[in-house]
Amino acid sequence: MQQVASQYAPSPEVVVPFFGAGSLFYLAGCLMIGLYPDLFVGHYFSPGLLAITHLLVLGWVTMIIMGALSQLIPVILERPLHAEVWMRPVFLCLLLGTLLLAGSFWHFYLGTAMWLASVLLLVAAVLFAVNVFLTARRAEAGGIARDFILSAVVWLLFTVLIGVTLALNLRFAFLPVDHLELLKLHAHAGLVGWVMQLIIGVGSRLLPMFFLVHDPPLRSLQPAWYLLNPGLLLAIIGLWTAQPALVLSGALSLLAGIGIFLRFAVLCYRRRLKKRLDPGMRQTALAFALLVIPPALLIPLLTGGRLPASEENAIVGYGSAIIIGFFSALILGQSYKTLPFIVWLAKYRARIGRSRRVFPGDLYSTPLAHAQMWSFAAGFALLMAGIFLVKSSIVRIGGLGLSLSAICYVVNIFTIIFHKVKDEADGG
Amino acid sequence: MRQMEDRAAQDLREKLKLVIDPELMVNIVDLGLVYRIAYLEESRRIELDISLTTRACPLGALIVADVQHIAEEANPGWRVDVQIVWDPPWTPELMSEAAREALGRA
Question: Would the ipTM clear 0.90, i.e. be above it?
Answer without folding.
Answer: no
